[in-house]
Amino acid sequence: MNTLNETHDPKLRSWVASANEAGCDFPVQNLPFGRFRTARGVEALRIGVAIGDQVLDLRATGLIHTDDMNALMAASPADRRALRAAISAGLAEGSSRQGAWQGALHAQSALEMAVPCHIGDYTDFYTGIHHATTVGKLFRPDNPLMPNYKWVPIGYHGRASSIGVSGQHLRRPLGQLKGAADAPPVLGLTQRLDYELELGYFAGAGNALGEPIPMGEAEQHLFGLALFNDWSARDVQAWEYVPLGPFLSKNFASTVSPWIVTMEALAPFRAPLKRPAGDPQPLPYLDSAANREHGALDITLEVWLQTAKMREAGAPAVRLTRGNAREAAYWTPAQLIAHHTVGGCNLQPGDLLGSGTLSGRKPDEAGSLLELTLGGKNRITLPNGESRTFLEDGDTLTLRGCCERAGAVRIGLGECAGTVLPAVALDA
Amino acid sequence: MNTLNETHDPKLRSWVASANEAGCDFPVQNLPFGRFRTARGVEALRIGVAIGDQVLDLRATGLIHTDDMNALMAASPADRRALRAAISAGLAEGSSRQGAWQGALHAQSALEMAVPCHIGDYTDFYTGIHHATTVGKLFRPDNPLMPNYKWVPIGYHGRASSIGVSGQHLRRPLGQLKGAADAPPVLGLTQRLDYELELGYFAGAGNALGEPIPMGEAEQHLFGLALFNDWSARDVQAWEYVPLGPFLSKNFASTVSPWIVTMEALAPFRAPLKRPAGDPQPLPYLDSAANREHGALDITLEVWLQTAKMREAGAPAVRLTRGNAREAAYWTPAQLIAHHTVGGCNLQPGDLLGSGTLSGRKPDEAGSLLELTLGGKNRITLPNGESRTFLEDGDTLTLRGCCERAGAVRIGLGECAGTVLPAVALDA
Q: What sequence ranges are listed for the domain Fumarylacetoacetase-like C-terminal (chains A, B) (predicted)?
């Protein structure tokens, strides 16, 4: 069996040929977990590992004996490493397992993917400091970044039931819209439908209620991450969000990518956490040497848009944004785990912690239309002559992410796509 | 079998003698649902109905064939009414079922109760207008009630994992505390631990994502209600809550009472919804004639405190508050259902919707210490000479509720108790 370090070896190749192609999101160095149904009408979800353009049915390999992803996520770090090493060894070129495992492969294109685990609770953080600053200016011109921002990893609870998987079609939501200062609000369709480019961190083993997870153990409670789109209705948000935060402006839908890339796979792409000079140091419960040295994530993130007209014309999607999580996030996943639990709140396997919108410093690295158009003031022109301030019906919005570093094999996060549907008829 | 109306008949008595005693919370007219384990070490939860000081094991009666409360909650209104009528008939004096059902009874005192259903998502609303006004004054003296309050049933998502059942012992939480304006925050134990007197409304049958529930159908999606204590760390809250709302100040624990009193049982205690003259009318999606006529709930609510010293001295708890939900709540449960789903958010059976703190108009009807002590300024003196601004370690806080009306049998909500434990040692 390979050691954990060997699972990252750039020389490692798979007997699944598509996994060895340049630019592939899922080489044998990645091995992300997801849940699938076959197109043959099988109802129950099974756990799969993406490899090239195939999915390995993990239970069929005999390495696990469950279809419960949350149970797998709760495994000890040692068991997780051992499972990764065993999958890596079995999929490696020359493995004696090739004959037995060949029958456990499905073409990805033939599968229906699901939300990758049961998400008991979902929390959305606000770690993108450039996002917080730009949006803060729009909502509160005189007070963009709150005094607590550099001390508290700001977060709030989100809605778990409405999280769907990539490929989701979401209806444009209704909500209360407030126009002129002296006019009453009206119920209407959001006119400012937006996306948010986020990473979703998945909890592994949880903690008991009342027992905080210290920084030194926080990474052990992280299972992995996926792409996450926190769709937002900005007009609804602006009217409803005081004093208790966003509610209907966010809970109509969120979309997650189907593959959880594990913290083990991400090991070569960890980076130092850099705080700007002059910023306060984190309080001790949010600080550790390991976190300063390699708590951050070096992940390139992109947003792509394909309108209905582009799709009809056979035109490809256009890229709206390209940035890096490392430059965008003020707080690391470990800090989010430590903060979330410091008061005793219990995390459970499969809980989702959104990063918040990961916008870079530069305007074209912004992770939402609210930022790219400065609140709808600067209309974006697309190559086919269309333009956008916010999303229109028929738009497909796709998040992509990947990790690249000299001396390591590129690993991808796959994609997180969603398409805006017109609303149902309004009878209310 | 009794008709639904007959289940409320004041003349109806049970062969369970304790159910006929004056002041009993659980007469045969109530029939609330809960989940229990026997003290005999049986691990699996079973569905029970409270009757007097006993619990009827519902599956043992043969009326249901599941231990899954959420499945029972998802039943159609017609099936729910039929089940209630059958339970009522079987427990009524003279029933031929008495012999068979006698063996399905357990003494409540011998059982361990659980959170009454699986709570997938928990939302906390803010329907207590007197609470919102008083607290608004403390947090924002110049802007107590936000301009959206009388238009939007303000709510936010809460933490489901940390909800426990009455009898819960909760640790005093750690959190960031901000002192003087120019001093950095510190991690410390909350010094302003508070309770919030709420009702918790439980969803029955849900809705599909993207399909709002109109007002006319909202009550059909309500299963029932319980008492709910939204413990709050006020010092943590004041520092963390801008701009995205409360987080660690609330998610360390919440407590719910074990018995869900059904909407069927509450039918005799519905009341007109009165909006003060001059207030805006609700938008059409939040309005219906039925809601105006009997959307509100006539429920008396109380808060009781027993300190450790009182307990040691054998002294009973003292009442801090007595008020009525009808006077406190600006929005009805049906309006909360309609609002929650208007953007397409999907409710699922067992989802919990907190009412927010139900404080009456008068100062002694306040549902939190924050209000009773005006932010800690007015210390409360207890009969034994102790005093409180906020909760201290060892305090047991108990919520109680009941419905009383001339011509109807009193029904109770049971109690929702929690005891504050000292924090664990702080190593962070």
A: 130-420
